[in-house]
Amino acid sequence: MIEVVNATRCRLGEGALWHPTAQRLLWCDIPAGRLHMTSTEDAGAQTMATWVFGECISAAGWVTESDILLATETRLLRLDLLRGTQTLIANLEDEMSHTRSNDGRADPQGGFWIGTMGKKAEPGAGAIYRWHRGALRKLFGGITVPNAICFAPDGRCAYFTDTTTQKVRRVALDGQGWPAAEPEIWLDLSGTPWWPDGAVTDAAGVFWNAQWDGSRIAAYAPDGGFLRAIELPVRRPTCPAFGGPELATLYCTSASIGLDAPPGAGRAPDQTSGAPNGALLALDCGARGRAEPAVLL
Fold first, then answer.
1. Which sign does the torsion angle of CA 202, 229, 259, 249 carry?
2. Residues 72, 92: contact at Cβ < 8 Å?
3. Which residues contact 40 (CB under 8 A, 6 or more apart)?
4. Whole-prediction pTM value?
5. Is 43 left (phi over 0), alpha (psi -120 to 50) or beta?
6. Can you say how many angstroms the Cα of residue 225 is from the centroid of all Cα atoms in its chain?
7. Could you tell me if 35 and 14 are in contact, meaning their C-beta atoms sit under 8 angstroms apart?
8. Do residues 242 and 289 lie in contact, with contact meaning Cβ atoms separated by under 8 Å?
9. pLDDT in tens, 208-260
10. Of all helices (H) and strands (E), which one includes residue 59?
């Protein structure tokens, strides 16, 4: 069963994060510079709070019950969810006016990975960085659209993609969470209709991937083998996250950008479907996630 948790029509919904101690879901609308938070206690839940920033925002990790680390266009910020106060943690390509942040997630060792990309998706303009205990280090460069950043449950490897290549890469990590080898192609979707966007792993290490323009989330075994796909009533799913009291609900953000066609045109669902493009969805996929690790500042 697929439900619309929140019908707020994000232009580019991203960064879905279930805060395990606050028991709240947060998600971003990148170009609108908006961070939303909802209780998600039922399918009709409405946004409890919205923070508006003067630049793009894209991803977050939790620090304490009331604080999160938020990636904006040019910064990593610590945001107090109760008071709304912001503290600068690090600058992020703030000297590069043509780039912004995109996909990101905390790793099991307490680090935070964040991708950047050109605002017009300029080829090779982006990179992937890792924040860990006071230092921001560039891991990989020459990336066009960074996505699918997530980690094996045991923290021994990370996954990421440049969506434009249709290839998901896997890289071994050392005990501190730093890359310990060169990335290898783990999942090759080239020649298919599937464009890998955001991803998350469940408690068993299954890789759940939202597929841009594919109207689906697909599940792949730890060895990269295809397991199954769940069709969604939105055209552009963007970022999945497990949440809820038992971590048994799979949430997924979506995008409406570029989908302003009239009702019934092409493959773009409209408001009459009950799931407008850009909405936040919830589904029971039969799997269980694990709590997102805290970011150690």
1. negative
2. yes
3. 5, 24, 25, 243, 244, 249, 251, 282
4. 0.93
5. alpha
6. 22
7. no
8. yes
9. 999 999 999 999 999 999 999 999 999 999 999 999 989 999 999 999 999 86
10. strand 57-62
Q: Indicate which residue of 107, 162, 197, 202 is catalytic.
A: 197
Both tokens assigned to 46:
């409405």
According to DSSP, the residues that pair with 170 across neighbouring strands are 159, 184
* CA pair distance 245, 239, nearest whole angstrom: 20
Q: What tokens appear for 178 in the block?
A: 């730093």
CA distance readout (Å), 130 to 136, 149, 153: 6, 11, 18
Residue 291: Cβ-neighbour burial (10 angstroms; 0-12, 13-18, 19+):
middle
- CA 223 to chain CA centroid, Å, is 22
Annotated catalytic residue 284: no
Rounded to the nearest angstrom, the gap between the alpha carbon of residue 292 and the centroid of all alpha carbons in its chain is 12
3-state secondary structure (DSSP) of residue 271: helix
Of 54, 52, 3, 4, which Cα lies nearest the Cα of 28? Answer: 52
In sequence order, the 6+-apart residues with CB closer than 8 A to the CB of 172 are: 156, 157, 179, 180, 181
Helix %, strand %, coil % of the chain (to 5): 0, 50, 45
Please list the residues that pair with 52 across neighbouring strands: 34
- Could you tell me the strand order of the sheet in which 2-6 lies? 2-6, 280-283, 249-254, 237-243
Q: What is the pLDDT of residues 61-96, one digit of tens each?
A: 999 999 999 999 999 999 999 999 999 999 999 999
φ and ψ at residue 165, rounded to 5 degrees: -90, -15
Burial 41-75 (b: 16+ CB within 10 A, else e): eeeebebeeebebeebbbbbbbbeeebbbbbbbbb
The SS3 of residue 272 is helix
